[in-house]
User: Fold this.
Amino acid sequence: MSTNYYAHGPDLPEDGLHIGQHALGWEFLFRSHPKRDLSTVDAWYTLLSRPDVVIYAESGYGIPLGEFWADAVRRPAEVGGPHRMRARFGDRLRSDEHRDQGRPFLAAEFH
Assistant:
């Protein structure tokens, strides 16, 4: 089971900006948005901590930043092992993947 998360705010897409995906037993996979300068942990935190931005799970419920962030930045050992992006998403990753502060990022669309 996996859950995708989206940021909603006045200067973000109407249907939300994909933050990333949490899948049971895997590290949180951040969605990188290079054109918005959202390719680092710090950049995402800066955006998500704005008072006009709200985080929603794909099922529609809102989630407080503190609760979301605690899950998003847990270490691999806390979720049962390292994130294997190639195992989850196959060969299409190539240069679209990177890590920042040890966290996986993918600059390609995924759900």
Q: What stands out?
A: The mean pLDDT is 84. The CA atoms of residues 97 and 106 lie 5 Å apart.
